[in-house]
Design goal:
Radius of gyration: 35 Å
Largest sheet: 5 strands, parallel
Helix content: 40-55%
Oligomer: single chain
CATH architecture of one domain: 3-Layer(aba) Sandwich
CATH topology of one domain: Rossmann fold
CATH class of one domain: Alpha Beta
Shape: globular
Structural class: alpha/beta
Distance between the termini: 133 Å
């Protein structure tokens, strides 16, 4: 009888490589101290929504003193512009509820042949009658305010450094309370009259519009953070606006401004 030799259980069978203390190779990558790569974007220092606080500047002042020019220059510097007068036109377009209210309040004399609002005819009424102007504002302002709020919110979500709300009735329409700063744009009487007539207004219309706002500066000064005098040259005024905007973004207080004729 032949007896087969026995081997320990851990013996290496003939033809097999001898075991080692090294771990068996695998298809898995060796662990490291480095984080595994992902498809997620790397974090940055850029603000995410909601972004950095957006400065809200209210821009107001008498007609003909250059509010729109100042707003345009601020737009060139990166601010988002919200023009309350443009929005006021939007809310009285055909099909808007405010138009029906205006026509009911002022009658057929303010209806253009195409059914739209005859703004010139309406202006001749309200600029010579304070009570009529108050009736118009009571209709238009409540329709304008929500749209201004929406546009401020949109600019803030978009990360705009500043929003400029241009409105001649900024204070009276309770829009100043939304603003971090209120800028009062003024000019001397000669510049104001020249600019209005350059727009094509006749002398009587110019006088009526100026007279309707005769006390506006006195009323607005207490609410103003900064006074921007546009009586000088365009280059001088642009430099003033640029400096004021830089200071406002930095949170610097104004050093004082003069009001022409006061």
């Amino acid at each position: 009888m032949t007896v087969e030799p026995t081997t320990p259980d851990d013996a290496t069978p003939p033809g097999e490589p001898a075991p080692t203390d090294e771990p068996a190779p695998t298809d898995e990558p060796a662990p490291t101290d480095e984080p595994a790569p992902t498809d997620e974007p790397a974090p940055t220092d850029e603000p995410t929504s909601p972004g950095e606080p957006t400065l809200v500047i209210g821009l107001t002042g008498p007609i003909g003193c250059g509010k729109s020019s100042v707003a345009a220059w601020l737009g060139d510097l990166g601010a988002t512009i919200v023009d309350a007068d443009v929005i006021a036109r939007e809310v009285v377009e055909p099909g808007q509820p405010a138009l029906d209210q205006v026509l009911e309040a002022f009658g057929p004399d303010v209806v253009a042949p195409d059914g739209s609002l005859d703004r010139a005819a309406l202006g001749r009424i309200v600029f010579t009658d304070p009570e009529a102007l108050a009736r118009l504002e009571a209709i238009v302002h409540p329709a304008v305010r929500p749209r201004i709020l929406d546009r401020i919110a949109g600019a803030t979500r978009a990360g705009a450094p500043a929003v400029v709300v241009e409105a001649i009735k900024l204070v009276e329409g309770s829009l100043a309370a939304l603003c971090d700063e209120v800028w009062l744009v003024v000019c001397d009487a000669t510049a104001q009259r020249d600019r209005l007539t350059a727009r094509g207004a006749d002398a009587s219309d110019t006088d009526a519009r100026i007279a309707a706002q005769s006390d506006i500066v006195d009323r607005l000064v207490p609410a103003a953070t900064r006074v921007i005098d546009t009586s000088g040259t365009e280059d001088e005024t642009r430099a003033t606006v640029r400096a004021a905007y830089t200071d406002a973004l930095a949170g610097s207080s104004p050093t004082g401004s003069a009001i022409p004729g006061v």
